[in-house]
Amino acid sequence: MKVLVTGGAGFIGRQVVRELTGEGHEVVVLDSFRPDVHTSRPEPRDGLIVGDVRDERTYDGIDTVVHLAAKVGLGVDLNDIDDYVSSNSLGTAVLLKSLGRIRNLVYASSMVVYGEGRYDCDEHGPVAPGPRRVEDLEAGHFEPPCPYCGKPLTPGLVPEDARLDPRNAYAAGKLNGEHLAAAWARETGGRVTALRFHNVYGPGMPRNTPYAGVAAIFRSALERGEAPRVFEDGRQRRDFVHVRDVAAAVVLSAAALPEQPAFTAYNVGSGTVTSIGEVATELSKAYAGPPPIVTGEYRLGDVRHITASSERIKSDLSWKPAYDLTTGLTELVHGR
Ligand code: UD1
After folding, report:
1. pLDDT tens for residues 159-201?
2. Which of 77, 81, 109, 266 is the most exposed place for a label (fewest CB within 10 A)?
3. What is the number of the ligand 1 atom nearest to the C-alpha of 217?
């Protein structure tokens, strides 16, 4: 098939392009090479459109679109909010409008659409805690309590049909993109698969930018000889999934689209829950660097735990992540 990959020059995009090409597909990359991410901007060439998804254009001869182009990360402060909406929501809207006769879309979504995700209370069963209170965070109470009795909760794995509750501009934009794409699919008879990525890491991770994910931030610190700075108490839970596993999920999803319903959402995670403190410790060890410092700082837009079940994509598409975290981090640090 001929596949358009938006954001194809980015961290995940480059790996997706490699995987698609390796499987014999023809690929066209659309990437804006935004200066806050890329240091240089290449000349357009065959198979590369240097441009912004927000600019309307026609895409001829494309069978499937993989839409990865986005402004990523949590955002530095609220001054970014309009750029998130413009880059992500408007970007998706203009792309959808430009799809013409194309009917197959893979949309890069995120685990952050769930907000705090799933928790269980001994007394009240499954509950969905609201955003954490500043007073609690200031006091070092990082675990969200049961919204009914205030007792501690046990975090669990979120299924795709869980309540969606985005907590920051990036998350809101990603969910908005899912909704826009679902509306496009209904209107046109198209099909969209939204992949809700967990914390993606691996070779080619962005460096030295406040928009980078935590593994990249820790790596940059260690490369400077500094200790990784772990926010909260380091016990917040995430699922780190290797970028090659993510690329494989994208390619499988793209190939399966013609048989899929109008809208499908899949969580894409390794299946292994890890705390941020553990990731920092593993990386420090791999670099033989200083041990992490747990700072107690917090970011208001952060959720405490965000881990979901990826069983649906495993069973529907036979996707199987190949990397465990130790292997992936070792490769990242030692280049193998
Ligand atoms: C990340 C991605 C988001 C993706 C989501 C999928 C980034 C920036 N965010 O969000 O795009 O959709 O995963 O689940 O890639 N932390 C520290 N020290 C730091 C920075 C962060 O301890 O220097 C902590 C944060 O407080 C948070 C955790 O690390 O608890 C993860 O933060 P981050 O990597 O920004 O990712 P998510 O918010 O999980």
Report:
1. 999 999 998 899 999 999 999 999 999 999 999 999 999 999 9
2. 77
3. 23
- How far is 110 from 265, CA to CA, in rounded Å? 10
Cα-to-centroid distance, 215 and ligand 1 (Å): 8
Pocket residue to mutate for ligand 1, from 199, 222, 299, most atoms within 8 A of Cβ = 199
Q: Which amino acid is at 228?
A: P
Residues recorded for the chain: 336
| Per-residue pLDDT, 271 | 93
**Residue found by looking up tokens 């390619």 in the block:** 251
Tell me the two tokens of residue 55.
């600019």
* Cα-Cα end-to-end distance for the chain: 31
The rounded Å distance from CA 196 to ligand 1 centre is 14
Return the CA Rg of the chain.
20
Pocket test for ligand 1, best of 37, 74, 232 (most atoms within 8 A of CB): 74
Q: In whole angstroms, what is the distance from residue 326 CA to residue 171 CA?
A: 28
pLDDT at residue 178, as a whole number: 98
> Quick one: pLDDT at residue 116?
85
Q: Which atom of ligand 1 is nearest to the CA of 216?
A: 34
Compute mean pLDDT per 10 residues along the chain, 336 residues long, and list them.
97 97 97 88 91 95 97 76 95 97 97 90 93 94 95 94 90 97 98 97 82 87 95 96 98 97 98 96 93 95 90 98 92 77
Enter the pTM of the model.
0.94
Report the amino acid identity of residue 180: L
Centre of ligand 1 to C-alpha 167, Å, is 13
Q: Which ligand 1 atom minimizes the distance to the CA of 74? A: 8
Any residues with CB less than 8 A from the CB of 145 and at least 6 apart, and which?
129, 136, 151, 152, 153
Place of tokens 């402060």: 77
Helix axes 325-334, 214-223, angle to 10 degrees: 40
Q: Cα–chain-centroid distance for residue 71?
A: 11
In this prediction, residue 236 carries a pLDDT of: 96
At 17 the pLDDT is: 98
Q: Any idea what the Cα angle at residue 309 is, between residues 307 and 313, rounded to 5°?
A: 130
